[in-house]
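Async update (no meeting this week)

Hi team, since we skipped the sync, here's where things stand on the single-chain job. The sequence we agreed to prioritize is pasted below, unchanged from the tracker. I ran it this morning and attached the output directly underneath so nobody has to dig for it. Comments welcome in thread, and please keep replies under the output.
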Amino acid sequence: MSFFGYRTSSSRPSQQETHLSEVERLRGRQLASLVRAGGRAKNQEQTLFEVLIADTLRGPFTLRLHLLTDFPVRVPRLKTSFPLQHRWLDVAGNVEGHPDLNMWTAHSDLGRIVTEIVKELRIVASNLAETKLSTSPARHNLQASAALLESRASHASSSRQAHGQHLKPPQRPETSNIRRTQIPVIPATFSELEELTLPQLDKLSADEHTLKSFVSKMTPLVDFTHLRDEVLHSNRVTANTTIGYEIELRELQKVVEARRLKLQAAQQALAVKQARQRRIVARHRPDALLEQLSAAAKNVDNESDEIAMQFAHGDLDVAQFLSAFLPKRNLYHTRTLKLARVLKHYTGQI
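Output:
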C-alpha cells in the first residue's frame, strides 16, 4: 500500500532477508574457522562439535562446543570432557575465563580461540600425566612374612623326607622360584642331618619331640626365624609411623575443605560478575545496535501504516493525515537508510 509516493510495508521483507543472510554468512565463516582448528561435528545440524586435546590414562581429553540457534550472535558454550584445574575453567570444566569469549562478537574468530584453549590445556594435561604406583614397603614385608612361614613348613617336610628316604638324591629348588621369592634360598642338603648316623636318624623319626627340638636348632631355620622377626618388626614400625600421621592428615583435610568452600564462594562471585559483564558488553555489540535500529524502523513503519489505515477509513481528514503521516514516513526512511549504511559498513569490513 502506498500514499503520496511512499512505500509502506514492501521494504520490510527485503531488510529482514538481508539481516538473516548476513547472520548465515557469519555462521558459515565461523564454522569453517572451527573446522580448520580441528573441530569435528557430532550431529547433522552442526550445533555440537568436539576437538581432541590429548590422550590420557583417563581416556581422550576433548573440548566440546555447543553452538546455540542464534550463533554467532550469541557466544558458544565450551566445556572439557572432564574437569581440570586451570584459570580458564570452572569446577565443572566449563570455559569461562578466556578473555575473547567474554568479549565475544559475531565477528570474533572462533577457530583462533579454540586453538589457544587447546594448546594451553594440552600443556596442562601433559604435566598431570599419571604414573604407575610403586609397591609400598609394607606390602613387601607382608609378602616376605608369608614366604617365611611357607619356607619353615618346607624345612620341616624336607627334614622328614631326608630321614625316610636317605638313598634318594635331594631335588634342587627351581631357579625361577628363587628369583620370585627374593628370600634366602632353601638349601638342597642340610649338613646337620648328613653328620648323623642311621640310628640317630631313626631315633629322630621315632620321637616327634626330639625331632622338633633338633629342627628348631638348625642353622637355616634359625636364619629364617631371625629374618621373620625383622620383617614383623619393620611392619610394626611402618604401621606406627602411618598411625602417627593420622592426626596431621585430619588437620590437613579440614584445611583443604575450608579452602574448597572459600574457592567455591569466590567462583560463584566471579560467575555473577562475569554474567554482569556479558550483559553490559551485549548492549554495546554491533549486532545489538543493528537489532535496535531495525526494531526502531519497524515500529515507525507500523505507526505510519496505522495512520494510513485511519485515513483510508475516513477517520482522519487530509490536513490531519498529512501532519501525522509525513513526519512518520520521513523518520522511517531516515532509520532505514541508517540501517542500510551500517550493514554496508560491516559487510565491507568483513
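Quick observations from my side:
The first helix runs from residue 11 to 36.
The chain has twelve helices and six strands.
Reply here if anything looks off.
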